Amino acid sequence: ELKVEQNPLFLSMQEGKNYTIYCNYSTTSDRLYWYRQDPGKSLESLFVLLSNGAVKQEGRLMASLDTKARLSTLHITAAVHDLSATYFCAVDRGSTLGRLYFGRGTQLTVWP
Amino acid sequence: EPEVTQTPSHQVTQMGQEVILHCVPISNHLYFYWYRQILGQKVEFLVSFYNNEISEKSEIFDDQFSVERPDGSNFTLKIRSTKLEDSAMYFCASSADAAGNTIYFGEGSWLTVV
Prior knowledge:
The structure holds 2 protein chains of 2 kinds. Chain A is mainly β. In chain A, strands 2, 4, 5, 9, 10 and 11 form a 6-stranded mixed sheet that branches. Chain A starts with a strand and ends with a strand. Chain A has no helices and 11 strands. By secondary structure, chain B is an all-beta fold. Chain B contains no helices and 11 strands. Chain B has strands at 5-7, 10-13, 19-24, 31-37, 43-50, 53-57, 65-68, 75-79, 88-95, 104-105, 109-113. In chain B, strands 2, 4, 5, 6, 9, 10 and 11 form a 7-stranded mixed sheet that branches. In chain B, strand 5 (43-50) and strand 6 form a beta hairpin. Chain B is globular, with a radius of gyration of 13 Å. Chain B starts with a strand and ends with a strand. The mean pLDDT of chain B is 93. At the A-B interface, strand 4, strand 5 and strand 10 of A face strand 4, strand 5, strand 9 and strand 10 of B.
């Protein structure tokens, strides 16, 4: 089974700081997704990365994909409190349509 | 922005009872999914549905589970005889196609089996 490992699982950071969340996966996949989840809420799509070297940015978040290393990163720049949430990465095999394998999530807390 | 709608938001049921969770996917989407998330755990795939049939199902999706698209808009998940371990948040999702487009998730139905 495709395994997806995220680290760290818990991240507490001060406002204004930068940090990176890592997502490793165990088998070839060309599609990687990042989602945000607030407590008790649904999964909000942040990024869909479709090819090696893909980089996408939205506000203070930037995601990248290295398919050769089977690694994606979610970089947080100058964190603010509103970014506090759980962030999930997910991959699919490419051959299975829409079956996503999720990581355990990174619970991010940003404090003043 | 269009969204996936799920009902009920929360249901409590007795063990052994049947439960049906309802979803209205985004209207022009063709691929539909159910996922679940047990409290504190990761999101797990249950089943995908395309062209009025199951495309793929996970090992979790046993004979107690079924899905149906009874009309052009609804997509339901039925659990025939609930067990305590079925307690989870169930997410419906949909996508326009499977070629790496965004998969949109609903708000979830929180199922508690007592």
